[in-house]
What we know:
A: 4 helices, about 75% helix, elongated, B: mainly alpha
Amino acid sequence: MREMVSGILFLAGAILGLLAAVGVLRMPDVFTRMQASTKAATLGLGCLLAGLAIQLPEVSVVIRAGSIGAFVMLTTPVAAHVIARAAFLTGVPLWKGTLIDERRRGEANGRRPMP
Amino acid sequence: MLNMITGLALVILAVAALLAFVRLLRGPTLPDRFVAMDLIGILIVGLIVVGAAATREQVFLDVAIVIALISFVGTVAYARYLERDAR
């Protein structure tokens, strides 16, 4: 029973990782690629860690898996935000279907681009 | 049975890392490559976690912690340099 649950979690985590990679390969611009990678990869790694903690329920394993999970959940949004900010400020072209570009709208109104 | 499943999970994660590597090679702009690099770091952590489950070796988890840390710091440093050069 326990092996089955952890096996299902491993497969789910691996498939979510594959989905993240397919999203990074197929999405049209940096920002959409980033949201595919961060969401799917964070949930996928969470599934893998949960499967590991279920399969080897020892204190040292569970604590390490929990600390990896907490660290990744805390740092992935920060890393994605920093990359997105750098990409936006360096003027990476947006996808042609993007509806709102605040920087271009601000420049049209005579405001300087954000610092 | 679990050995087969962990093997399958390892293969799927390796294929995912390969696809992310294609984006790393192809990426039209520098931030694209950062995104792919970050994803490869997370996938490597996942590979190590599944490997630790397959071999029942807890020591690998320390390696996973270190790789997650280095991947985050590297991404933030890259982004800071890129942003500074943009000004």
